[in-house]
Amino acid sequence: MLPAPLISRGGDYMKEDVSMVECLELPLEPSIDATYRLLRANEDEAYYWKRVDRNLGWITRDEQEYLRNCTIGVAGCGGMGGQLAEKFLRLGVGTVRIADNERFDATNINRQFGAMRSTIGHVKAFETAKMLRAITDDTIIEVYPRGITARTAADFVAGCDVVCDEIEFWSIGARLALHRAARAAGVPVFMCNTVGFGSHLFLFQPDGMSIEDVLGLNEEDGWCLESGLTLAASDPSHARARARVMDAVLRLFPSWSDYSEGLDGPVGKKALKERLLREGCGAIIATNPPLACGFAADRVLLHLLKDSSVARVIVPMPDMPGYLFLDAALMRASVVTRRWW
pTM for the full model? Predict the structure, then answer.
């Protein structure tokens, strides 16, 4: 039998009293200063089992019922996070919690779940929640439009069975805060990134290697660097902060394939790193985030069902400092069991 999913909220370290508004639909003008819990508008048992019917056969009815009582937090509603939230919703997870403090712009349209012409300039968390609600109304959706901060991180992770870190590349303070809160609450964190046609998947366990160890930064460093990034691009402090953040976060891309080795031109590692440092934006090919999201969502599902009575023959997911890597262009899949970061 599977263990009972976590349902209580704990982890009070630096916990902010979050204003939680319970409703069936987001108001016409939701406030970014509130957190919203969209309750189940549809309690029809027959409907739920009809919509998840095609899962059965690969998972059991008991496992599906377990997922129905799980809570998954997805921090970040960008190219990976929005699609992951959708996958978990369609899977039949009972509560999907999302957080993002950014607004959509035109550059997001090539890959992000909630990005379209009509949502440019709109809050990512709200627009993603609306689209999730339009898919089905029998799931609880919790929305954190302020994103992950030092004081909202504990509330966001509390009660989650798993958290997915899909926080924006430069938001290093938020990333460190999320992981700190997850460790304190005993919640595992999955992180998946996409680079070219490849994807890395990491699993941070509460008692394992920390994100601080990987990045070489603590949370205070992270918030200081993130603050530096808000300065004008002409300010030397901004350039120094960007270079340091880039150096740290690129450690999470250990199997970065070039695809154009030995060639000069506008593609390849060198050109991409120069653009990232110069413009502050990374190149993400539109076709890879869906592959990466499916890859990550499958492994989150298998992790949640690890204590099931069903004996599955699968490749184990290594904890950090190990990781999984999948590349569609090179047709390469790797299990790295240990890496000296």
Answer: 0.93
Roughly what angle, to the nearest 10 degrees, separates helices 81-91 and 288-304? 50
In sequence order, the 6+-apart residues with CB closer than 8 A to the CB of 224 are 173
Cα separation values, 193 from 147, 188, 267, Å = 19, 17, 19
CB atoms within 10 A of CB 79: 26
Band of the pLDDT at 271, cuts 50, 70, 90? confident
Confidence of residue 12 (pLDDT cuts 50, 70, 90): very low
3 cis-preceded (ω within 30 degrees of 0): no
Task: For the chain, state the CA radius of gyration.
Answer: 20
CA dihedral of 282, 286, 289, 291, whole degrees rounded to 10: -140
One-letter amino acid at 261 equals E
- The pair of three-digit structure tokens given for residue 100, joined into one six-digit string: 């993002």
Residue 133 has a CB neighbour count (10 Å cut-off) of 18
Give first-to-last CA distance, the chain, whole Å.
37
Q: For residue 124, give the amino acid letter.
A: K
DSSP class of residue 10?
-
